[in-house]
């Protein structure tokens, strides 16, 4: 990898790419993508990973906004590149991540070359340049669902500090003894920093490419003897369904970090109790590089009953070294860490965004703190629990209801595949929760059965008013549920239009 990364650096020199020039990727998790991570950034250019699941018009807007000069892409994304290249005004070079023989003869992409031809023409004798550690190393765009995404630049300094923090024992605990499978995409906030932390420690990396179904991921874990994996809950649900359906076990997998959205407690328990896999619950966002908190239990917690340990494991964890938290109220005053008081979560640290690219009138901080948009509690031991996004919080009769709590309870029902909780207008209580549910294949569940399932698990006034059964729940480009899209679904829109008259 190091040798070929040096060849990538030389290939960019041969293209006369200036320092800080943006080199974009549209690629799955693979070894060529990893070589670009180090060859591009190490040579003083900026690696720009683009999310291929975005709309083509949005991809073209992002490439132009970033002033990308080179685009490297997997051949599976050739139709996408063909659709957008005419709109990409700044890209001068296109590189297909393939062998010379696999290069399409009539791609309609001007000057298209194969990656292997591009790098193999270069010597691997290369001396990495010296430059300021605060220079940009990579960039990612937020996956916002309204308006244009915002661009976050990461420096060499922030990336290295983040890698150190990620590898610590109470974070991901990465070492040279690990074989790591990052299912989280390399186009999603640099795969949570795992490519850098793995290189820092000497851990082995295993890449899934585009095969993210439960069967493929399981076979890869077993074949490559993976010890540690990372991904979002939706992918792990498919993995668990496959393993359970086949009566299988994991022979080497010991732990997994789950983030991107809140991990249902039922998933944490299934991994731990049925398969002996420790779940490390995590929280972060594009603006925090992305890791901000990971859930490792303190020594005193290990002495508590299993039920109490599970409650802690369901939280997003304690701040990594280098990250500071606070929660504030409507008056911007700081709130207590008592595990009960809800507030808007603010963070700061050396790998937290200061402003958005290009840095003009795009300040992100409030008195040095970044407002995350999450609503959270923090307990006396510093354990963070995200209760909602501020835009999704449900206020009923002046009291807050956590949509995440309601979703987690629904997900614990054996018939429920996926659940999203939304607030619906109510003439007396202002808003009331309604749960939107996708059932597992060949399973049935009545509205009354699910509502009864909530009894004793949550306060009566927090139990959803109703259940709406749907075939699928819209997911965003990074696997998160899109609440705004859920509200637009015909079944949900019709329910809301009729004032919640039944599901």
- Overall geometry comes to globular
Strand residue content: 15-25%
For the largest beta sheet, what order do the strands appear in spatially? 5-4-3-1-2-6-7
CATH overall fold name of the largest domain: Rossmann fold
Measured as a percent range, the helix fraction is 25-40%
What does this entry look like structurally?
Residues 2-357 form the AMP-dependent synthetase/ligase domain. Keywords: Fatty acid metabolism, Ligase, Lipid metabolism. This is Long-chain-fatty-acid--CoA ligase. InterPro entries: AMP-bd_C (IPR025110), AMP-bd_C_sf (IPR045851), AMP-binding_CS (IPR020845), AMP-dep_synth/lig_dom (IPR000873), ANL_N_sf (IPR042099). One of its GO terms (molecular function) is ligase activity. The protein has 503 residues and is α/β, with parallel strands linked by helices. It folds into 3 domains: 2-131, Rossmann fold (3-Layer(aba) Sandwich); 155-389, ANL, N-terminal domain (Rossmann fold, 3-Layer(aba) Sandwich); 399-497, 2-Layer Sandwich (GMP Synthetase, Chain A, domain 3), CATH 3.30.300. 29% of the residues lie in helices and 23% in strands. It has 16 helices and 23 strands. It has helices at residues 2-14, 31-42, 56-66, 78-84, 115-120, 156-167, 189-192, 194-201, 214-223, 233-245, 265-275, 306-313, 403-411, 447-453, 483-488, 490-497; strands at residues 22-26, 46-49, 68-73, 93-96, 113-114, 136-141, 151-155, 179-182, 204-205, 228-231, 255-258, 278-284, 291-294, 318-319, 324-328, 343-348, 370-378, 384-389, 394-396, 399-401, 416-426, 430-439, 466-469. The strands form 5 sheets. Strands 5-4-3-1-2-6-7 form a 7-stranded mixed sheet, sandwiched between helices. Helix 11 links the parallel strand 11 (255-258) and strand 12. Helix 1 packs across helix 2, helix 6 (156-167) crosses helix 8 and helix 9 crosses helix 10. The longest helix has 13 residues, at 2-14. It is globular.
